[in-house]
Amino acid sequence: MRLITLLFAGVALLSMGTAVAQPAAAKPVTPRTVVLNSSLKSPWGLAFLPDGRMLVTQKAGSILLLDAQGERTIATLAVPPVVFRNQGGLLDVAVDPDFARDPWIYWTYTEAGSGAEEALSGTALARGRLIGTALQDIQVIYRQAPKTTGAGHFGARIVFRPDKTMFVTLGDRQKLDPAQDLDGTLGKVIRLNRDGSVPEGNPGISQTRPEIWTYGHRNPQGAALRPGTSELWVNEHGPQGGDELNRIVAGRNYGWPKVSYGCPYGAPKGEACRYGGGVHEPAYEPPVSFWVPTSFAPSGLVFYSGRRFPQWQGDALMGALAGTAVWRVRLDGNREVARERLFADLRERVRDIREGPEGHLYLLTDSGKLIQIRD
Fold it and tell me: Average pLDDT per run of 10 along the chain, which is 375 residues long?
């Protein structure tokens, strides 16, 4: 369904016989795309430093420090070894809210097990101080548990709240049932302090894993706060169909694998094959938006709050991997009212999407491009 933009220029309301002029809505701006950099190697996460320079993770195990134009590599930041295989590797990156005073940056990655568990892996969270063009004081501050076999569904997005605690999304590692197990952190969203400890105010749904904020997730690869709130939203991959955009409510169960609008791989397209019949309420939190019968594979999520594109104000925008585009979802409160597929002519697997400090949007693609969406 195409998103219909309503223009209210020149509209007047009549009240008690007097015409009251209403302000004209801002004129929609036609976006255009510009490739800033095409030399990246399997980029995954993007973050902006306070001075406009950019951090870009490359899955094989390095963080690039780019100039504010995104065109030139200033430095390549070394990090501890990662398991670079299939969906695994160096994943998201985030900048400390107090970076100007204490220059920590944070990243998620696929970490190998040790000893007898060397063949296993899991999502880990680390941080280090960016001093000049090098990382110092590197610490691993959190490890998903348990480590397991396989090379998929790591989740791994990092989002800071206004209170300077952080959310981290953790995939189910393609193991299904552990997403419902509150003694482990597969298929969860967790909330941590900046040193990896557990803050006050978590919902307390697990005695053994107090960091758990929500559970029943499959592979949440996009995460963002709704502007002006502490409210986390995530998108996540469904199986065959059933990709979701979710409003995250503390303590709630999002259903996977008990229920989904998606179907097991190979099932005939339709409603009869949906996990649990697709019915979420009242036991499970339903998605705000879902996509059927096929998946577009969402990755990266942002709520647009800039002034460059007034017609997108407050909308959720997310990258599409299988769908090779950007999806835009218009919300009325917590309800989807319209959606639109954008930039399909790029024919790129969009891995991440971020709003820059000047209000333009930036895309990372699996082909190695940094693309700016400008007015």
Answer: 36 35 68 97 98 98 98 97 97 98 98 89 98 97 97 98 98 98 98 98 98 98 96 97 98 98 95 96 97 96 97 97 97 97 96 98 98 97
Per-residue model confidence as pLDDT tens digits over 24-44 = 567 888 999 999 999 999 999
Q: What is the CATH number of the domain that holds 198?
A: 2.120.10.30
Q: Is residue 239 part of a domain?
A: yes
- φ/ψ region of 4 (left if φ > 0, alpha if ψ in -120 to 50, else beta) reads beta
Residue type, 111: E
- Cα separation, 287 vs 242, in Å, equals 10
Q: Is residue 248 part of a domain?
A: yes
Question: pTM for the whole thing?
Answer: 0.92
CA dist 88 and 93 (Å) reads 14
Q: How many domains does the chain have?
A: 1
Query: What distance in Å separates the CA atoms of residue 121 and residue 305, rounded to the nearest whole number?
Result: 37
Helices (H), the chain: none
Asked if residue 4 belongs to a domain, the reply is: no
The residue segments making up the domain with residue 364 are 31-374
Q: Has residue 25 been placed in a domain?
A: no
Residues serving a catalytic function are 153
Q: Is 341 exposed, middle or buried (0-12, 13-18, 19+ CB in 10 A)?
A: middle
Q: What residues pair up with 125 in beta bridges, in sequence order?
A: 108, 142
